[in-house]
Amino acid sequence: ALLATEDPGLSNEEIKAGILNSVDLMPSLMGKTVSEGRLNAYSALIGPIPPLPPPEPSNTMHVGDISMSITDSKKGKKNIFTYAIATITILDADDSPVEGASVFGHWSGLTSDIDSGLTALNGKVSLNSDQQKNANGTFTFTVDDVTLNAWTYDPSANIEHSDSIMK
User: Fold this and answer.
1) How many other C-beta atoms are found inside a 10 Å radius of the C-beta of residue 104?
2) Strand-pair category, 37-38 with 114-118
3) 0.90 exceeded by the pTM?
4) For all residues of the chain together, what is the average pLDDT?
5) Helices and strands (H, E) in the chain, number of each type
């Protein structure tokens, strides 16, 4: 009756459709009623309320993983030169890879250099330590910062902030 009073030109079918299309869906009524929801007379009068727009991306990123490996190369008869490789993965708040982020970090243990690089499409960047002659010990890489225009680095969301590998 409210819909007919508001718009006398509506047919019975249009009124019925307006009521059924404006209910508040209720899981407890699924399969129990034709509308599977609770009547919402206000919504029926004003028309359907448009859905909320999807949330804006948060543009926050964090370290999702640091993988470590070691590479040896022999030079001369006695000397073996070793360096470590840290592969860092940067992810957004939805754990999707972030491309183009600058990753800054430092090495400790067997070497003490500073490295940085840009993440690829897969969110990964590989950074190499300085070579060490006849190495015996630990290479450790620590992420110090991650930057990308219009993004925020959230170190509290990091899965890890440093990783080590022994030679």
Assistant:
1) 15
2) unpaired
3) no
4) 87
5) 3, 11
Tell me the per-residue pLDDT of 112-148, one tens digit each, with 9 for 90 and over: 999 999 999 999 999 999 999 888 999 999 999 999 9
Q: 57 CB contacts (<8 Å, ≥6 apart)?
A: 92, 93
Q: Is 24 exposed, middle or buried (0-12, 13-18, 19+ CB in 10 A)?
A: exposed
Q: Which two tokens stand for residue 86?
A: 């840290």
pLDDT of 6 over the 80 cut: no
Q: Which helix (H) or strand (E) holds 123?
A: none
* Side-chain-side CA neighbours of residue 87 (13 Å): 8
Alpha carbon 59 to chain centroid, angstroms: 9
If we measure between CA atoms, which residue out of 59, 87, 61 comes closest to residue 146?
A: 61
